Amino acid sequence: MDFKTVVNDVADVLKDIDSSRARFKSSRPPFKEFQPGVGPYGEPQLVKLVAAGLNRLSRYGGCAKTMRTPDLLIEEHWALEIKIARPFGDNGKSAENWSVNLLHPYSGNTSLLGDCLKLQAMTRSEQKGVIAIGYEHVPAQVSLEPLWKAFEVVAASVLSIQLGVRAVAIRDGLIHPVHQRLVVVGWEVG
After folding, report:
1. Structural Rg of the chain based on CA atoms
2. With 70 as the cut, is the pLDDT of residue 42 above it?
3. Do the beta carbons of residue 183 and residue 8 sit within 8 Å?
4. Which residues of 149-182 are buried (b: 16+ CB within 10 A; e: fewer)?
5. What pLDDT sits at residue 109?
6. Banded pLDDT at 29 (limits 50, 70, 90)
7. Which residues pair with residue 131 across a beta bridge?
8. Model's pTM, two decimal places?
């Protein structure tokens, strides 16, 4: 199973989660007190839903599971770490420190760069990769593209992490008034 397929499948599962939450719009918010849609979910809750969604696809054969490290294991295929990039909160206000989830360049922290270092140290046989799940307005009020580029530059130039070619899957039409576009971006980690 190639990495681009996994990134696209994650985007499809997230879009499906978002669409299924639309049915609950009039009766109750789907996640805590937030507005309906996939955008407000926290990382642990979202990764569990992604694993369940992937396991409904025949090509995964029930082999996707959540763990402490890595966040998402697709047994015998991929060990994946996942982070969320959300420049705006559920209320539409700018989120503080949202880009730190990707760019904090130190071993042992919880950023996507730290996750790359953690994956490199793992002895599992699966291929390794990182995925960022981003949300934008349509049109973007804060483009995520500079964040992706900064991640790649810091990974390669500062930490000497070998990343594969960026895989991107975009899904529009999310139901949340702030998190309108889903951008799933991933890199294989060498």
Report:
1. 16
2. yes
3. no
4. eebeebbeeeeebebeeebbbebeebbbebbbbb
5. 83
6. very low
7. 82, 186
8. 0.92
DSSP annotation of 108 = T
> What are the backbone angles phi and psi of residue 92, rounded to the nearest 5°?
85, -5
The tokens describing 166, both together, are 């960026």
N-to-C CA span, the chain: 17
The SS3 call for residue 58 is: helix
Residues 6 or more apart in contact with residue 85 via CB below 8 angstroms: 98, 99, 101, 102, 132, 133, 134, 135, 144, 147
Residue type, 67: M
59-103 pLDDT tens trace: 999 999 999 999 999 999 999 999 999 999 988 999 988 999 899
- Sort residue 108 into left (φ over 0), alpha (ψ -120 to 50) or beta: left
What CA–CA distance (Å, rounded) separates 20 from 25? 10
What is the count of structural domains for the chain? 1
Q: Strands 181-188 and 167-171: what pairing?
A: antiparallel
For the chain, how are helix, strand and coil distributed in percent, rounded to 5? Answer: 35, 20, 45
Residue 59 belongs to domain spanning: 3-188
